[in-house]
Amino acid sequence: MKIAIIEDEELAAEALAAIIRRLRPEAEIIQTLPSVEEAICWLTLHASPDVIFCDIHLSDGISFEIFRQVSVKCPVIFTTAYNQYAIEAFQVNSIDYLLKPLKPTDVAKALKKYEDMQQQFIVQQLNGLQQLVHQPARHATRARFLVKIGQSIKAIPVEEAAYFMAEEGVVFLVTFGGKRHIINYTLDQLEEQLDLSDFFRANRHLIVHINAVQEVKPYFKGRLALELHPALEGDQTVSSSRAADFKQWLDL
């Protein structure tokens, strides 16, 4: 595990490094960066580490500026004495938010979270390879759905679908104009027919179009709360197991 530390206080950086070495002796701390400017320069010129521990208040500014200027793909664990930046941290590749003074137990939990995510990613890759080998080719993505309106049949282009929702055993196509139409497909069947760069299976009852997602907020137990357009009654959430994939899909 290769780790970079972004921290402007030398003693704090050394203390964090000591905690990491004690918890993960095999880990390699490849760089300690004391400022926004130096972090931008180093991350631009070097391969990304496996994980970054990053303070928020640095000597020359707020560390979020680093991630606005450099595309950082690895997970980030934020460390700070302030708790008002949790939402903004969530918009970066944040997997944890630790308040100073840092406790070894908190650092251990953050490292374990990172390792669990990596293990889950490996399992997903293996499952994906197995599916490619054993499953038949996917159907072409659907361009429209036929729905019944009174005595007529109407074609609804797929780009007009804001989301598909299952309610008491019935699946509805809901348009961006707020109209609901019953369709004769399950959500599992729809996943096989939709362009998954545009649609995401948020939970057992909901598939959403990327343009229908207006706001995303942290929710209980690692889940994400969604605000959709058109609005949908009740709490609409993404499960904790799918939260990382959802953030990647939204390019957060």
UniProtKB/TrEMBL annotation:
Positions of post-translational 4-aspartylphosphate modification: D55
GO MF: DNA binding
Signal sequence coordinates: none
Coiled-coil annotated residue ranges, if any: none
InterPro entries with a match to the protein in the record: CheY-like_superfamily (IPR011006), LytR-like (IPR046947), LytTR_DNA-bd_dom (IPR007492), Sig_transdc_resp-reg_receiver (IPR001789)
Positions of the HTH LytTR-type domain: 145-252
Pfam family, one: Response_reg
Keywords from the named record: DNA-binding, Phosphoprotein
Residue span, Response regulatory domain: 2-115
Protein name, as recorded: LytTR family DNA-binding domain-containing protein
